[in-house]
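W.,

You were right to be curious about this one. When I first looked at the sequence I had no strong expectations either way, so I just let the prediction run and decided to look at it fresh. Below is the sequence, 403 residues in total, followed by the output.
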Amino acid sequence: MAEESIVVLGAGLAGATTVTELRDQGFAGPITLIGDETELPYERPPLSKGFLQGNEEPAGFTVHDAAWYQEHNITLKLGVAAISVEAARRQVLLADGSFVDYDRLVLATGSRANLGGDAPLAGYDLPGVHTLRKLSDAKSPRAHITDGARVSVVGSGWIGMEVAASARQLGARVTVYSSSKVPLASVFGERFGHHLLELHQRHGVDVRTAKVQGIEQVDGHLQVLSDAGSSRADVVLLAIGAVPNVQLAETAGLEVDQAVLVDAALRGSDPRILAIGDIAQAAHSVLGRRVRVEHWDNAIRQGKLAAATLLGQEKSYDWPPYFFTDQFDLGMEYVGYSDPGDETVIRGDVESGQFLVFWQNGQKITAAANVNIWDVNDGLRELVGREIPAERLADPRIELADL
């Protein structure tokens, strides 16, 4: 095993975690980490929050400095895209015409912004219209979202709502175009979705239920066109979802169904190739189904699992998904995997801004969240999957540890 070469395609958090874990676990063979961005691998959550607001700089969310990779004998190839994977020859073709040989390959190619499907939204490429998937994407909005600027956000998912909150805190006038009446209700149900909607409205965000038809440039400003009328904007953010980057997996001949299909150890249909992070539709050994998760925690955990698999350890994808968000005065951690039809149970006073949320299918807890209550998420994680009556979950007199 020590003589095998491992190549990781995708120099994001998942890829960086994989190579870190390999070295931490004592793997001594050649490792090459390849990415099309010129920046060192970094964490992405600050892009819509601290970095956009000017409170964080890249040095604070870069995984390792350049010296670390040198000290750990990891070959970095940044700013060069991979074109194809020649699985029969175990080679990766790069955009500069060179080939990189591998014995084992990890695909961690992440996702790209959805621009509207097969027919991109008209005006998506106008100056002042942005997406937010990479550090380079965030630099221009950061410079232009200022006090009094008119910011339109197309989409009401997590990135859209976080950017709306960040822009409003900077003093911008913010409009969110949402395809649903209640943002994120398709993920968390109507009750918690309403809480997020009212949070934004209290802080002056104009949330409109509307379908955006396109963006135009008129007399030096942007015009957002929707079925609920048009509005002017200085900055437009397209936040209408993400598309997994599966092109390299397809060139490798892997089984792909919108995402890369992998087993619970993250191996693809070619067992020498693993796929992790945003692109992995992975068999979950506890849920008994495949899931695809795009969040920060999953990038770290799957990076570690990929390293374990490469080292021959018998481990599997068995943890409940986790993510966090910060919007205005709301800080939330969520753990689990709920469905829109699950029943919502609130523990505590929503009006106080400090409460817990449980999602249940019957009496089984599918997910839980802590809102402005800290140091309890590990306890919530232990409750996911258990069957507990809703009235006990809602009773604050019963300690979490006693549930």
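Here's what jumped out at me. The mean pLDDT is 95. And, maybe more interesting for your project: The first strand starts at residue 6 and ends at 9.

Coffee later to discuss?

I.
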